[in-house]
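The aim of this short unit is practical: by the end, you should be able to scan a pair of folded records and say something sensible about each. We start with the first protein, listed as its amino acid sequence and then its structure tokens.
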Amino acid sequence: MWCIPEVTQDFVERMEHVLDLYEKPYDRAQPVICVDEKSKQLIANTRTSKPPKTGKPKRTDYEYQRNGTRNIFVAVESKAGFRKASVTKQRKCTDFAKFIKRLVTLPRYRDTKKIHIVLDNLNTHFEKSFYQTFSQAEAAALLKRIEFHYTPKHASWLNMAEIEIGIMDRQCLGKRIADKKSLVRNIAVWQKIRNKRQTTINWKFTKQDARKVFRYEPAKLS
């Protein structure tokens, strides 16, 4: 099923703002970080799997046990080849605010002038989450270091964190994971490998591409 956006003035302005942000040269003092989250169903085997043999893969029984779900926050600084993932029980306002705090207080961001964070429009992704989680002074101090940039509604594909999550799904999560401890361990190994390789995302979609795809001219939008 497709999600078809309405190409309004607001849609275009938000989209082109994010695309302009992506086109800027890498600046360690003003990093651009994309953030998103996804849920993962925890599933345990109920029968012992048969180990692989020559010419035959490992065999796992179709029966399984559901062990609830966990949320995974993912942040990716695409031009620097750095990502940070965190597993939480939920994805409420406080979970989001605490994840962003852990992110922006990492040593690599200690001396930044401003941290630019790209997000979709989920209702937890706003400044109010910080004031609900921290004291007035702490929330204000954290937000002073951050500038949020929101993708248009029905255009979360503009958030590069979705690309990183898709890669994480294929490389790390595409199997049965029984519990939070195993989930955290798998993600930590995956994250370490990608960060060591400094794997970047080569974003190629530009404003010029957008104007062709969505068939609009900014000057003619009302």
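Turning to the second protein, read its sequence before its tokens, just as you did above.
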Amino acid sequence: MSIRNRNLHRCARAGLALAVAAAASMIALTAMAADPDWLDKKLLEAAKKDTGTVNVYSSTNEGEGLPLWKIFTDATGIKVNYVRGSDSQLFARINIEQRAGKQEWDLMQITGLQKLPKSMLHQFQPPEAKHLRPEAQDPEHRWYGMYANYNAPGYNTKLVKASDLPKTYEDFLKHPEWKGKVAIDFSDNEWLKAMFVHYGEKKGRELVANLVKVLKPAVTKGHLAMARSVGAGEYAIELNQYVNLTLNVKLKGQPIDFWVMDPVAVFYGQVAVNEKSARRNAAVLAENFALSKEAQTFLSKFGRIPTRDDVPTNPAGVLDAFKGHKIIPTLLTGKEDQQWQKTFKELFQQ
């Protein structure tokens, strides 16, 4: 082969290699640009024809909620107006809006959607709902659980030895030295109901009254604030806590952990669409995103417990701790919540 032909052969091989590399790059870029599984193109087009925005009312703190919905905006171009408040604050807001005849919320994400009138919640089954555990879905398809709120006590691992942890709530009565070092949130009505269901009303009431007498627990406001206080050592024990919030503080390096005793109350961080939403298409698309593997994987970074079996908990194996324990689903209506709040105040001497 002549020198000229050899050079031509080398150039041809180099050109082929470049072409293959370019094709591989294009394939990689195409894969990166592929639409996520939860994104319905037709629904997205319809949403953009509306206003291109969606109002999300949520009880999730801004540190988690804002970056979560940025993922949605980046994928869709739909702007999210994020309104954050407690369940009670958001209920008050939408009641005011309703009286004014102008409901602004499109998507609601809180833990008490079953307390709202059914007529306010859009009846719809998003495609991603098929991946949720059955117990994390409203049978009438008005709300869906995007994370699970398991209730269990927590403790500061520097102030309390794991070997000293009670195995039952009755065992707490053997620790008068913890008096004044225990906290509970003022709104733990689901936990209180689970105690009454598990022990029976008479024994449950007596046990809780004795816990208050022996431990003198501080009644705090805000579950995340309480978890942070336990992690900081302000309190040694949280008599009850949302496990995901204990994990949230633990994942940030604080000396806090949870342990499981019967009963375990469980309810959900729920999501639902406003039946009268002026931005229905965007709201439905946002609801589908909230239930997606992508969204639940993101929230698991903060210790949120997913309602999908294809998303692992963080840390791994959290749900294993609840195996063999008495799990009591507690979804209180608005009237029931008021009744249990009254009982809570009576027992905790508020």
